[in-house]
Design goal:
The chain has helices at about 5-15, 25-30, 45-50, 50-55, 55-60, 65-80, 85-95, 110-115, 175-190, 205-215, 240-260, and strands spanning about 20-25, 100-105, 120, 125-130, 165, 190-195, 215-220, 235. With about 260 residues, it is an alpha/beta fold.
């Protein structure tokens, strides 16, 4: 099945009949909003910056102002980015079907588009917390025209610790509660849409297989396949911003026809 309209119609029928749908999104989804991916070749963040110097607990202990300044630069970029049509399509479909989102992205684009049930496997950029007592902290004022390597002293917590980004750094474990919710969603969904993820980052990459073994129909939406053919039931070669609005429109048409 290669025709986009036919794919959208057939998949919309599955979603309309599904008890639960899971969307697993990765960096490719945010990239369409202008947020740089980590592994995007010459344009990826790790092609320009050293992850060991910026995204590890050791880097934080060695030079917290450098790490904090870099993440504040990333926060400013994410704040400037806007949800695209794919983000909005997921939120729209969630008003017509039971849809949960599990994302590897640390931005808040799904939420800003209107999605409510969102699980962040790798943490949340703006969910700041203390590095000592783990208490949540409010977001500081946005940076304006700051360079990526401009140091900035992290805010102090009332306990004497330092406020850090709420992301999962290399060498840290995933948030246990988020992982449990992701596994539960994967095991109980009838349809899984894997959108904009390479399938290389574990343990998130294991979720489509878990869902498929539990009986789910797994669809990969990506211009280039990241998962093997035997790991998914259908590969839709398109971007999230194109495919998901078409899917949402097909779902609307099917539900309207069923109710008319």
């Amino acid at each position: 099945m290669h025709d986009r309209s036919a794919i959208a119609t057939a998949l919309a029928a599955r979603i309309a009949a599904a008890h639960r749908v899971l969307v697993l999104s990765g960096a490719g989804m945010s990239a369409e909003s202008g947020i740089a991916t980590f592994r995007g070749g010459d344009h990826g963040l790790w092609a320009r910056f050293d992850p060991q110097a910026l995204a590890t607990p050791e880097a934080w202990r060695a030079d917290a102002p450098l790490v904090w300044g870099w993440y504040r630069w990333r926060m400013a970029g994410v704040r400037d980015a806007q949800p695209h049509a794919g983000h909005r399509a997921i939120a729209a479909m969630a008003s017509r079907a039971e849809i949960a989102v599990v994302t590897q992205n640390v931005d808040d684009l799904h939420e800003r588009a209107g999605s409510v049930d969102v699980v962040h496997l790798h943490g949340e950029l703006f969910a700041l917390r203390c590095d000592r007592c783990d208490m949540r902290a409010g977001e500081p004022p946005p940076r304006v025209d700051a360079a990526a390597t401009e140091r900035e002293t992290p805010p102090a917590c009332v306990c004497g610790g330092r406020v850090r980004p709420g992301v999962v750094w290399f060498g840290e474990s995933l948030p246990e509660a988020a992982w449990r919710r992701a596994v539960a969603h994967a095991g109980s969904s009838d349809v899984v849409l894997v959108v904009g993820t390479s399938g290389l980052v574990q343990p998130a990459a294991s979720l489509p297989g878990l869902a498929r073994r539990a009986g789910a129909f797994v669809v990969e939406i990506n211009p280039q396949p990241g998962f093997r053919a035997d790991e998914v039931d259908l590969h839709w070669r398109d971007t999230a911003a194109h495919a998901l609005p078409e899917l949402a429109a097909a779902l609307d048409a099917q539900l309207a026809e069923a109710s008319g």
